[in-house]
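Notes from hallway chat w/ T.B., transcribed later so I don't forget. T.B. wanted the structure written out for a chain they're using in a teaching module, and asked if we could keep both sequence and C-alpha cells in one place. Agreed to drop them here.
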Amino acid sequence: MTTRTPEQREDAIRAALEAGRWAPSVHNTQPWSFSVSGEVVSLRADVDRKLRVEDSSGRELLIGCGAALFNIRTALRCAGFEPITRVLPDPDRPSLVATVGVGAPMEPDEHTRLLGGEFERRRTHRAGFTDLPVPERLVEALVGEARSEGVRVTPVVAPGAVEVVAALTRAAQEVQAQDRRFSLEVIRWARPPGSGRGDGVPAGGYPREAAPTEPRFAQRDYAWRHEWGSEADQSKSASTGVVALLTTSGDSREDWIAAGQALQRVLLRASAHGVSAAFHTQALEMFHLREFLRAELCSGEFPQMIARFGITFDDKDAVRRPLSELVD
C-alpha cells in the first residue's frame, strides 16, 4: 500500500496553496485567501476584492474562488493525496468557500499530471487569435472536462448565434462604458507600466486598441483615459476563435463555485494543448441580457461565462500576489 511521510504531506499543502493563487479571476482581482489548520486548507472569499458595481451579487467572485478550489484539489492529487472537499461547509461563515483536507495516499494519473502542469502556464488572452483552428477533438474534450464537474460547455457553432453573442457583448460594453462607475471600477484594476503590484491587469496584458474580430467581440476598456496597453497590428483582423457558453442548471452559490471549478478544468486542458481563452462577461453582468441568453441560447440553463478559445503566440508574464499576502 502506498504511504506518505509527514514531510510529503506538508509539501502537498504548500503545493496546493501555491496552485490556488494561480487561478484566474475577473480583472485578476484574486479575491481569495487561505488558511491551514493541521492538514486542512480553508479557502475564503475576500469580499474586499469584490467588484461592487460589476459583480454586486458576488457571482464572478465565487467563480474565481471555484477556479482556485479546483487548483487546490488538483495539486493535492498531483502530490499523491486524495482531496477531501467540502463546499460551503458552514452556513454561519458565508465567506468560507470550501475546506480541502489531505486524504488517503493515491497515485495521480497522467491526466491529473497534465492539468497540474499548466497552473502557471495558463494565460488569459484579451484580443483576437491567429487563424490556426482549434481541433474539433479538443473542443469535444473540453466539453467532457466541464461535464466531469457537473457543468455544461456548449460551443456556439451557428454563425447567426455567434453574432448574437457578439452583439450582446458589444451592447453591454457600450452601456457600461457610458457608466462612470463601471469605468472607474475597471481601471482600478488596470496597472500602469512599471507597477509592482501583484494583482490587476498589467499594461502589457491587454492591447491599447485591439485588432477587430469578425464578428467583433468588445473588449474591456482597460486603457480608458490613458495610453497604457500594448500595441496591436490594426492592419489585419484577428480570428474570433471558438465561442463557447458555460452554463449550469441552477444559479445558486454552489452552482457558481461549480462553474469556476469546471472553467479552470477546461482552461488547464486547453492550455496543455496550446489553446488560450478570452472571456466576455459584460452581458452576464446585466440582468436582462443574461436572461435573454438563458432563454434563447442556453436552453433555460444559466450562463456563467462566455469564452472564446483560440491559438496565440503571445507569452505575456502573469502577475500574482505572494503567498505571504494570501495565507493566514
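Follow-up for T.B.: The chain has a mean pLDDT of 93. Might be a good example for the class.
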